[in-house]
Each structure stands twice: as structure tokens, then as C-alpha cells.
Amino acid sequence: MARKKVTLKATMGRGEFYWVAEVDADSEEEAVVAAENLFLAEMERSSGWEFTDFDVS
Hints:
Elements: E1 2-12, E2 15-25, H1 28-43
Antiparallel strand pairs: 1-2
């Protein structure tokens, strides 16, 4: 298994959301599923997070 950095992008009605995670996976497909699962686990505890970085153009 290799460590992979995965960036997921969701296009929503009012903007785009990016989720970046590092996961252990044997393939790209497995890495995407692992990153999605990490995102869903974080959303169960979403009241405890905030945005910590930004870029304004």
C-alpha cells in the first residue's frame, strides 16, 4: 500500500468545495473511496471545524 494525496472537488449550487486528504491505498480508485469515507466521517463531527486558510482574487 502506498500513501496518496487525494483532492476531491464537489461543484455545488453556490460554489465549489475541495477536500484534500492523505490515504493509504493500492490504486487510484481505492484512494478516492478512502478519501470520500474520511470526508463523511469528518462531516459527522462538522460542528467542530472552521476554515483556516483562504485565497481572494
